[in-house]
Structure formats: C-alpha cells, structure tokens
Amino acid sequence: MPTTPSKPAPAPARGSARDLGGLVDVTSSDAALRRFLHGLPGVDTVGLEARAAALGTRSIKTTAKAYAIDLAISMIDLTTLEGADTPGKVRALGAKAAHPDPTDPSTPRTAAVCVYPDMVTTAKEAVAGTDVKVASVATAFPAGRAALDVKLADVRDAVAAGADEIDMVIDRGAFLAGKYLKVYDEIRAVKDASGAARLKVIFETGELSTYDNIRRASWLGMLAGADFIKTSTGKVAVNATPANTLVLLEAVRDFRAQTGVQVGVKPAGGIRTSKDAVKFLVLVNETAGADWLDNHWFRFGASSLLNDLLMQRQKLATGRYSGPDYVTVD
C-alpha cells in the first residue's frame, strides 16, 4: 500500500446522466435505462468470489499494518442506529469519534458519526471544533417504505439540523420489479434535497439476490448522482462481504474510466476486526486503486470495528494486547 494516499478533487456537481460523457440519453426513458443496465457485462460469480478470497489472504508487514490500522480508523463512520439511542449515547459516540484513544493523541479521528435525523444536532455539538463529519440516515431507513414526500422531508430535516452527509436507502421493491427510472428519479430528488451534503446511496445488497443486480444498482446510483455507493444498512442477515464490495469497487473504477467522475464506496455491517478491515483495504488498493485509499472516497460503516483497531494499535505500540476492558463499550 502507498504511504501517502492521494486525495483527488471532489467529483463535480452534475444534474443528470446527460452530463456524463458517452452516457447521453441513458436515463431518457425506462426502456433506455433498462437497456443500458442489462447491457452491462455479467458478473462471473465463481471468478468474483475466488478473486475476493485470494485478495483476502494477502499478508502485510508490521509497518504497513500500522499504516493500515490508522487508515482504517480514519475511514470509519462510527454508527449508532438503534431505537434506544439517547442524547447521552450520541454525545459519548461523538467524543469517541473525536478522540478514539484519549491516552494517545496521535490516534486518528474517525471520518464521521452516523445517527438518525433527530440526533444530528446532538452529534454536531459533540464533534464541534473537529473535522469529524455528521452523517444521517434518511428516506425511511432501513426499509425505505414510505412515500417520496415523506422521504424528502426526512432528508431536509437532517440537512437543516446540520448533517454533512446523507445515507439514503433505495426502494428495493421498485428495483427488483425493474422500475429503474423510478429508483433513478428518487435518488435524483434526494440528491437535490441534500444540498451541499454528500449523498451515500445504500443498495441493501443482501436483498438484491445476484451480483448482476448489485452491479446494475451501482451504475444506477452513480448515474443518479451518488457521491458514495454503499452495500448495506447493517440491519439484514447479509451485509458487507468482500465479494459484494468488490462489485462496487469495480463499478466505481469503470465509471470513472468512462465519465471522469470519481464516486466513493462504503461497505457497512459485519466488519468487526482489524483483519477484516485490512482485507477490505487490500481490495480497494488492488481493484479501484490508490486514489480511493482516503476517507474522502472510502468508508467503513461500523460500530464495533473501532475497538478492535484500537486494541491492535496498542499492541503494535506496546507489544502487549490490552483487551476489551481498555476500550469503551458503545
């Protein structure tokens, strides 16, 4: 892995797929969008899973491991999305995001804190004076089963409260029914309602059934203006896996090659250990490339991952494994 990952300029704002190079008229009708999405190369399931597994066996040396752990910490969207969330819990999470290891000020901050819209104000206060972003799920998360005006009101509430980033869920029912233009139009509407906030589009890959569908959803999200594409909500049985994340990484790589627009990737749910995180960083480096090895372009949606990264970081620094009693329980 490179020691100084580059940080390209943010992707330009765009109004429609017609602004994207050779993709003129792709979204002009349901038929045109269907033709394009179903014309994407099919995913070789065996080859994809074999490549993801092979990349997961890569070993890295101690110096590179220390770099990877710090990089992974800086990429975390520290998340609490429970019905029992309280202002106190969100304040504690914000404090942890800003100072993950109070005994070691060299520990990187996390990228963001991710909360429900009604907790955005509390989260903003908790990370005030730092570069930690506040992300908010919206659009009737996690099921996405609500009318569009309700979803847009959800987004506007979060933005008005100060959210820097919006994590939306697509209408999986519409997508699986082949109503691609409906999904596209909804993402566009959410993008517009998000204003200056960056938009992460969640596909819930565990519900899309096939890798071909995940690839189609990835391109659909990017055509509609996603700043990030995200695997999952963390609320279903199958969330982020190396294989489904590899599909997203191939999609953003190919999308930039065709349009010049760079889009971020966020695997979420089920990534709990430093070993897991390193595997995903290898996937990023070997598939999309070093330009994505930065928290502007890659995130982990996680809650428990940070503690394991901190314990491994302490072990590298001291030679001793401190154990879970030395980190906070979220």
Structure description:
- The protein has 330 residues and is an alpha/beta fold.
- It is built from 12 helices and 8 strands.
- The chain has helices at residues 30-38, 45-55, 62-74, 87-98, 120-126, 148-160, 172-176, 180-194, 211-223, 242-259, 274-287, 305-318, and strands at residues 76-79, 112-115, 133-137, 165-169, 198-202, 228-230, 264-266, 300-302.
- It has an 8-stranded parallel sheet.
- α4 runs parallel beside α5, α6 (148-160) packs parallel to α8 and α10 (242-259) packs parallel to α11 (274-287).
Topology diagram in text:
Layout: H1 30-38, H2 45-55, H3 62-74, E1 76-79, H4 87-98, E2 112-115, H5 120-126, E3 133-137, H6 148-160, E4 165-169, H7 172-176, H8 180-194, E5 198-202, H9 211-223, E6 228-230, H10 242-259, E7 264-266, H11 274-287, E8 300-302, H12 305-318
Parallel strand pairs: 1-2, 1-8, 2-3, 3-4, 4-5, 5-6, 6-7
- Helices, by number, come to 12
H/E element sequence: HHHEHEHEHEHHEHEHEHEH
| Low confidence ranges | 1-18
Radius of gyration: 19 Å
How many individual β-strands? Answer: 8
State the strand order across the main sheet: 7-6-5-4-3-2-1-8
The geometry reads as globular
